[in-house]
Design goal:
Blueprint (H helix, E strand, L loop, with lengths): L2 H23 L31 H37 L1 H15 L3 H11 L5 H27 L3 H8 L4 H37 L10 H10 L6 H28 L1 H4 L1
Helix pairs in contact: 1-2, 1-9, 2-3, 2-5, 2-7, 3-5, 4-5, 5-7, 6-7, 7-8, 7-9, 8-9
Length: about 270
Amino acid sequence: MKFTTKLCLAWLGLIVITALIGPWVLPLEGPDTSPGGLLAPAGGDHLLGTDEEGRDVLQLLVAGARTALIVGLATVVISGLIGTILGTAAGYMGGFVDRIVMTMTEAVYSFPGILLAIFLMFLMPEPGVGHVVIALCIGGWATYARLARGIAMSLRERPFIEAARCIGLPNRTIMFRHVMPQTIPHIAIQASFGIANAIMAEATLSFLGLGIADGTSWGHMLSSGAVLYLSSPHLALAPGVILALTILVVLRLADNTQQYLNPKATK
């Protein structure tokens, strides 16, 4: 294993551990209303200082790690599951089912992903983690559906599928037992890249004030810190650096996953 890969795994492991146990080890407390508690510099009781409301920046970063992990994983799991099932059904069944699924995917692709998410967030009654996941899944399942459809179309005439039909297996059994397992490596590659895209999309929505607006998002921290960058640069630098490193690490590990699961396509 390369040294850079080990570093990436170490950083990703740190983010995951922080997201899982950080809120209990370093819970998000109320704002510091004491004299000097607003925009306090790093050091003392606040290792990374406080924001304009007196909240501890380190505690917000820990809470933001959990938000990023939840949004990234939930979006990929839900989108991947829906897209794989619909795409496999479209590719294997063909005909009317294929036309319906492809019409739906074309409708999704007619809008840029982030613009579609912004529009959907405008329709949400109260922005939150769940609503962000829903908005990203509505625009994210189509990629997995097109991928699964292509694989299913290439498999439906294979001898082992023909043999399954000859022994009388129903189409549902063939799809779930023989076709969908063949899509797992390709879906896993797409999902590994999708995690980085979901984290970035959530940060973008929160930066624009359409996502998580309670401060427990790296994107919202960036938005607040950008206004006070000249006087308190740590408010924007801390979440910005962590967000950039996390996305770069996930993309690097996704590229390694692609090389491992599909070496011929990589070459």
